[in-house]
Amino acid sequence: MKTGxxxxxxxxxxxxxxxxxxxxNPPGVTDKxxxxxxxxxxxxxxxxxxxxxxTQTAYFDMVNVAGGVNGRLIKFISLDDAYSPPKAVEQxxxxxxxxxxxxxxxxxxxxxxxxxxxxxxTAKIPQLLLIASTDRLTNPTEAPFTTILPPSAKVExxxxxxxxxxxxxxxxxxxxxxxxDFGKLYLANFKKGLGGKAADIVxxxxxxxxxxxxxxQIISLQATGAxxxxxxxxxxxxxxxxxxxxxxxxxxxQLVTAPSSSIPTVMKVAGLEKSQNVISFTYFVDPxxxxxxxxxxxxxxxxxxxxxxxxxxxxxxTNVTAYTAAEALVQILxxxxxxxxxxxxxxxxxxxxxYHLSLALPGIxxxxxxxxxxxxxxxxxxxxxxxxxxxxxxxxx
Length: 397
Hints:
The chain has 397 residues and is an alpha/beta fold. The protein contains 14 helices and twelve strands. The strands form two sheets. A seven-stranded mixed beta sheet has the order 7-6-8-9-10-11-12, sandwiched between helices. The radius of gyration is 21 Å and the shape is globular.
């Protein structure tokens, strides 16, 4: 698309939505309804994450049956972007221009979120609780209408670095990373967090989300003699790598990202016997933890899954994240009262007041501020033990 055409489209969005501000309700809002949009990888290389969009749809169905939010029902429009940045741009344009959504919510992916960042922020449409990791999405100067739910790459990979420095100060480190914005951001922030110890990274190997296997990368990293293997990859590659490490009789300390820490869809796929002692940095409860069933918030989550999301696995951490994101959005809308203007939505989403997330671990808050749209800044190191995670040490901030 030529620059002149692109600028014209952006201006048309701004002018078109500005005209709506003369009405009693802002765009996407009627007295009885609020339209919320999302793009999600229902197809393509990361379609394993498609369960999240379905869980959120079920959550909003539950809210609507109970009367909606402040008397308005939620019309949730979730479109497939196939984890393709060009398709995400196309589908986001449809949500803005045709569906006239009041806000965008919970879309998945760093690359896809960055692809639409200028588009939605120029149009001044709230883009809340993205499942993405780049710090650019938490910077109110570049992204004044955007927030994320999970910790950013800076926070999570910084926790990786602090853990290595405090518990494995003499270790040699190998890294396998996804060759896109997601993996590169994690790797860059990990090196920054390590400081001088970044010199002890003895091997790096990249992989694409379309690669059929990562066996050759793991074989090459084993040859470095590393004591620590860091995975900055998505689920499929992480499961393959953990399995191959075990098969090679290599025994490094393995650290995985939260998006790839699920027991059912990563550790069990790799093989539970192969996944023992893998470490993740968590912020939500582990649904496989036998003790968590005493938690009232978790019991409520199980009741929701059984009634509204039948067939989905409640022990999949992807569903925990999806449920929590929807829970947080409903709280934001409740705090907005009858004023669902973009400005008031963003004010309530980033005013520094903590939101109650029923599945967050003790001591972990979701609290974006006007100066920093990062919501979660503390993480719990946790180790696969049997068929669940157990905490290892104190929270890392």
